[in-house]
Automatic annotation (TrEMBL):
Subcellular localization, as worded in the UniProt entry: Cell membrane
Chief place of localization: membrane
Superkingdom in the source lineage: Bacteria
Source organism of this protein record: Actinophytocola oryzae
Name this protein carries in UniProt: Phosphate transport system permease protein
Function: Part of the binding-protein-dependent transport system for phosphate; probably responsible for the translocation of the substrate across the membrane.
Membrane topology: Multi-pass membrane protein
Length: 325
């Protein structure tokens, strides 16, 4: 008679973890609390905007228009809509202008320029991000506008049949196109810096393989560098878009405000963005007027948050972006 014994479960050997030093515990707790603090601050800002902006949408339109003269008889949504349109239009103009230039500069620094020239040019590009926005506004108002007015006249003369360039061009050109050019210069260092780091992460074996197959320098960039950096370029563009959406002083100093759904980018008094509108209206606002401006800030907060979340999703959706391969 044979007996069978049930197999005993093998116990896993105990893992001998090294003792945790006091410095490790302090650093771990500090990092955790810093991450929690960011979430708390973000939630506090959101709660403040919701609480303070709620009276603007819960109050009747008749009472709002009676107490706030700059609403011009519009409801809150009717007032916010053109501001959202102007904000997005100015940011898109800035992206169209800045993105090709930023990618070209980043490629030149990472793959074409000599090392000494590349380091100096990279330093200059990074320095542009440290310039205050009010300086960009002064530059746009005092130097840029007189320079671009002849170009705007040329656009109106030869391309006025396109609705975007319909004239006559404003003089001085305090238009959404001028604001878009200033914003393009402001977001240029952000897109360039991120794109440059992504281009430098391209695997060297991919570049050498393309060159070994007889590709020229541009063909190597086209078939090896740009496909690898595609998601990173998109995320850099989205980060620049987030900066352009929230810019205040530079836009306020070069743009003649208006509350219209207008695509005429060479006419003054057509559009306005949310941040500049808050800066201009807040000193004279009181009561429900402050609540309306805070509600517009809430709308801008949501738009910027969605743009940055979309950028982070693009960054994380491809493992190649990390450069591990």
């Amino acid at each position: 008679m044979t007996t069978t014994e049930e197999p005993r479960l093998q116990e896993k050997p105990a893992v001998n973890r090294p003792p945790q030093r006091p410095g490790d515990r302090v650093f771990s707790a500090s990092a955790k609390y810093a991450g929690v603090l960011i979430l708390v601050v973000l939630a506090a800002v959101a709660i403040f905007l919701i609480v303070e902006g709620w009276p603007a949408i819960s109050t009747s339109s008749e009472r709002l228009t009676a107490s706030i003269n700059w609403l011009e008889g519009k409801s809150v949504l009717g007032y916010v809509g053109p501001l959202v349109f102007g904000t997005i239009l100015a940011a898109l103009i800035a992206l169209v202008i800045a993105t090709p230039i930023a990618i070209g500069v980043a490629l030149f620094i990472s793959h074409y320029a000599p090392r000494r020239v590349a380091s100096g040019l990279g330093y200059v590009i990074d320095l542009l991000a440290a310039i205050p926005s009010v300086v960009y506004g002064l530059w746009g108002a005092l130097w840029l506008m007189p320079k671009v007015h002849p170009f705007f006249d040329w656009l109106t003369t030869y391309f006025g049949w396109i609705p975007l360039f319909a004239g006559p061009a404003a003089n001085p050109p305090r238009t959404i196109l001028t604001a878009g050019i200033v914003l393009a210069v402001m977001i240029l260092p952000i897109i360039t810096a991120v794109s440059r780091e992504i281009f430098l992460q391209t695997p060297t074996l991919h570049e050498e393989a393309a060159l070994a197959l007889g590709a020229t320098r541009w063909e190597m960039v086209r078939i090896a560098v740009l496909p690898f950096a595609r998601s990173g370029i998109i995320s850099a563009t989205m980060l620049g878009l987030g900066r352009a959406l929230g810019e205040t002083m530079a836009v306020a100093m070069v743009l003649s405000p208006g509350l219209m759904y207008s695509i005429f980018i060479l006419k003054a008094g057509q559009q306005q963005n949310i941040a500049a509108n808050i800066a201009l209206k807040f000193p004279e606002a009181s009561g429900l007027g402050v609540n309306v401006l805070i509600f517009t800030g809430l709308v801008l907060f949501v738009i910027t948050l969605l743009v940055n979340m979309f950028a982070r999703w693009i960054v994380s959706r491809r493992a190649e972006f990390s450069g591990a391969n």
